[in-house]
From TrEMBL:
It comes from Venustampulla echinocandica. GO terms for biological process: abscisic acid biosynthetic process. Gene3D superfamilies: NAD(P)-binding Rossmann-like Domain. Coiled coil: none annotated. This is 3-oxoacyl-[acyl-carrier-protein] reductase.
Amino acid sequence: MSSQRAAQIAGHLNYPQGLLAGQVAIITGSGQGIGAEAARLFANEGAKVVVSDIDAAKANAVAESISKSGGTAIAVPGDMLDDKYLKTLVKKTVEFGNTINIIVNNAGYTWDGVIHKMTDKQWDNIIALHNTAPFKLVREAAPYFRVTDGQPRCIINISSTSGVHGNAGQANYGLAKAGINGLTKVIAKEWGPKFGVRCNSIAFGHILTRLTAAKEDGAFVTTPDGEKIALGIPTGQGSQSKDANLDIPLRRAGTATEAASAILALASPLSSYITGQVIMVTGGRNM
């Protein structure tokens, strides 16, 4: 059989209803940006998608758009820093799909500051959101991953090049993203041998989202106690500078859809022998 014919069979016969047909996926932070694109791509490949986001209106809009396009999705909005919400998220997911096959820990934002000016609140908030919340969600979902029913199961943690190479002004975020890479490897080693659970991180570089847009655009998030955190990068600095992409071999930033496609690829059976890895999605930067 020719390699071309084998590819046709793999692409069209083995997965006629989609790469993720019948699987149930939680995608956190999927009310917008990379998470929303991942939710749509997963649904297009046959997954039942749970849209998790702190912004209920945005979460509902994504779920509704998926349903109108013929996919299957529900919104379960809430705050990832609320332990009760994490229990609700898992409970409603299982009610919706009877199991959980995929968790994408994508929710998060940046709250930058140089070391000598960073407050305890900035530090604690980012560590809690990017490390503690994903850990608690995975722990809550453990009964649906530590099983031997032969179904595919994987966890994808969204990291950053800041967690691999560091980035000035991001002591909190850099540590958190390095930490999620460590958690990824622990999950892979604990849940791989007996249960076949795969766990990987994706370290994104410059992706076009509200976190890398101009700070002057006015995007912000609000903490549970009401404090507004401005998002983005001041014009002329960092990824907003005119030469920002010169060290990227592809000479451009990535799109949210390209980033989400990497998540889909890693969740799919095409990556069935990949686990415990930090996959760099950077357009070639830092290779």
